[in-house]
Amino acid sequence: MLDNLDKFKCLKRGPSGAINIDPLQRGGVLTPEAREAILEWADGYSVCDFCTGSLESIDSPPIREFVQDVLPEFLETDQVRITHGAREGIFAAMHALCERGETVVADGNAHYTTLLAAELAGLKVEPVPAGQEPHYRVDPQGYEEAIERARGKGEVVGMAVLTYPDGNYGNLVDPRTVSEICRREGVPLIINGAYSVGRMAVGAKSLGADVIIGSGHKSMASSGPIGVIGTSDELAAMIFRRSQLVPHKELEMLGCTLRGAGILTMMASFPAVVERTKLWDEEVEKARWFAGEMGKLGMDLQGDRPHGHDLMFFKSEILYEISKTAKKGRYFLYRELKKRKIFGIKPGLTRQFKLSSYLLPRDDLKMVLSAFEEIVSHHPKA
């Protein structure tokens, strides 16, 4: 096995000029500045060469200023830490702010990692149910009902989580209404902004969140995995508390936050990220146009209508019917798109799939639409 390792010398993602419509990746495409930074800082624990005990204390490169001044202003919080991803930030907040056996109230469209974080922290989960298709809406008033249900069972509600937007349908639940309910009930609110922080102009204060979570590799043009967590000074005293055994290290961060090139790509991309949040309305309008054109081809948009995000979930009976007789069966769609240098829809999906239009020029989106039109028209239905 060790005699034939040449395959590892040149690992390529795909052909040049390809169109990537993967929702996980559209917001994480690196800026030219970030690509330069990653080459400069790619060697091992390069950032740690300058560390005296904590990432946010490094002055050169200017990580201290970025973490202590720039990101708190951007996230509308008092304090921020860099994490290894959104899920690590969610777990840190749950583990620090809740007691084992307590209950977390979470939207029915929450990412699976919210459930894993709660389970690992020893917490129960009371869901706020999502509605039926095609909208799958979560009623913000459902948070009050979920809190009451949990308390009616004798449970202590330690926290609420709102996924904004959710990673399935791109639905945006009114965060202010949820926040008002949580404050009235004395429950801290985490907003999982993995698909909003870095895309939209959002912050903890404007959304009404006690803790806000972001994902650098999903939405902040960063090389991941990397995330951010921001909160108030009051809650930071618990979430970022110091270890008793190693007093200069923060316990929930396991001593050190993200090491290496990821933080440098986030910093290098950040000026462009700030500017692009100002263009969010244009991205939404473009997504609505694209969804409308897909609808004409038999691809039915699920989730909020009018849609408010670039992440789109489609159901397509026409592609499913084609897959019944097409060569390669349900893998035919992936292969047909690949031939046209379009990537991002997972292999094997035809009846339902997700994609994103974020930051793609309309000409590229027209090419995607043309590809779907050709695929539908050139394949016989079962």
UniProtKB/TrEMBL annotation:
Enzyme Commission numbers on file: 2.5.1.73
GO molecular function: Sep-tRNA:Cys-tRNA synthase activity
Entries under SUPFAM superfamilies matching the protein: PLP-dependent transferases
Pfam family, one: SepSecS
Assigned keywords, A-Z: Protein biosynthesis, Pyridoxal phosphate, Transferase
InterPro entries reported for this sequence: PyrdxlP-dep_Trfase (IPR015424), PyrdxlP-dep_Trfase_major (IPR015421), PyrdxlP-dep_Trfase_small (IPR015422), Sep_Cys-tRNA_synth_arc (IPR013375), SepSecS/SepCysS (IPR008829)
Record's keyword annotation contains Protein biosynthesis: yes
Cofactor(s) essential for the protein: pyridoxal 5'-phosphate
Protein name as it appears in the record: O-phospho-L-seryl-tRNA:Cys-tRNA synthase
Classification lineage: Archaea, Methanobacteriati, Methanobacteriota, Stenosarchaea group, Methanomicrobia
